Amino acid sequence: MSIYNVVVLCLITAPVTLVIGSQQDATFAFVALAIIFCSFLSMALIFVPKIIELVRRPRERADVRSLMDTITSKEEEERHQRLLAENEDLKKQ
Length: 93
Description:
By secondary structure, the protein is mostly helical. It is 92% helix and 0% strand.
């Protein structure tokens, strides 16, 4: 989607730049604003849906995060127990 955004803005910016090419300050300002607008629009297309989703369902995201933390800590606990058992076996040798 961002690629299409850049292509459309290039198709608009290039002809306008050629038309106002004799005015260097206007050309520079127009190209600079086109680049800034293109970057802003691309970032908005990427992050606005994510922010809307977080605002719309904050509770579900917190539940998923806490569930993932619980799963991770169980795995870490099992690994820790195995390492302790292996350590005890090595000490006995």
